[in-house]
Amino acid sequence: LYSLSVDNVNIPVNLNYHSIGFRVNEIASNFGLGWSISANSVITRSIKGKPDDTHYGYIFTTLKTNNISIEQIKSGISNNNLDLEPDSFSINLPNGNSIDFMFKQDLNDNKLNVICFPLSDVKIIPIYYNYQIRSFEVIDTDGTKYYFGENNMYDINNSRNYEFDYETGSLPAEIPNSAVNYISTWHLTRVVTAKN
Questions:
Q1: At 92, is the secondary structure helix, strand, or coil?
Q2: How many CA atoms lie within 13 A of 125 on its CB side?
Q3: Region at 41 (left for phi over 0; alpha for psi -120 to 50; beta for the rest)
């Protein structure tokens, strides 16, 4: 539809239409019924175990994967307070670069301990509110700063934990009070070029 260009930074803007039908009393967006506008630059997350930014998630757990005992693993699983695998995050920047990243767990404070795949000099800074990652600042190698998730521009999903009864062979049952809301997608909200 359009590409916004400032200081050699291009941001493509797209107008999208869905034809899956409309609900009764559905309210049209500013662009019309079924139409939406997007810049397609997002950070997404794929949960592995628990959301990393919850109390017992990979970032904040006191049980580190490099020095955990079998007894601690058994206890953590039975108490539903253990996350042994980092979530995977992906960034799609307006310049076409895609970066995957995760949080490492080798420091006492892992809130800013990010590793990129492939290795990159792009700096990723999560912004927390309580335990939850609410937004990100991403600084590209040319000095351009991309902000994601500001002003609540994110999507929330729900994670539930299930358990299987090995003795009876019954189907998985939801663990009571195990539902956790987490942010799954952070949308691009602002771009600051190296020239400001």
A1: strand
A2: 10
A3: beta
Distance CA 14, CA 2 (A): 7
Residue 61 tokens read as: 């757990």
List the alpha helices (DSSP H) in the chain: 70-78
> 124 or 193, which is more confident?
124
173 exposure class (CB count in 10 Å sphere: 0-12, 13-18, 19+): exposed
Q: Write out pLDDT tens, residues 92-140.
A: 888 888 899 998 876 666 567 888 988 889 999 999 988 889 999 999 9
Encoded amino acid at 40, one letter: N
Nearest alpha-carbon partner for 134 in 149, 114, 155? 149
Q: What is the pTM of this model?
A: 0.74
**Is the torsion defined by CA of 161, 87, 124, 186 positive or negative?**
negative
Amino acid at 140: D
Which tokens sit at 148? 């994601």
Q: How far apart are CA 74 and CA 147, in angstroms?
A: 40
The Cα 35–Cα 23 span in angstroms is 14
Instruction: Say if residues 182 and 51 touch (Cβ distance below 8 Å).
Output: yes
Identity of the residue numbered 99: I
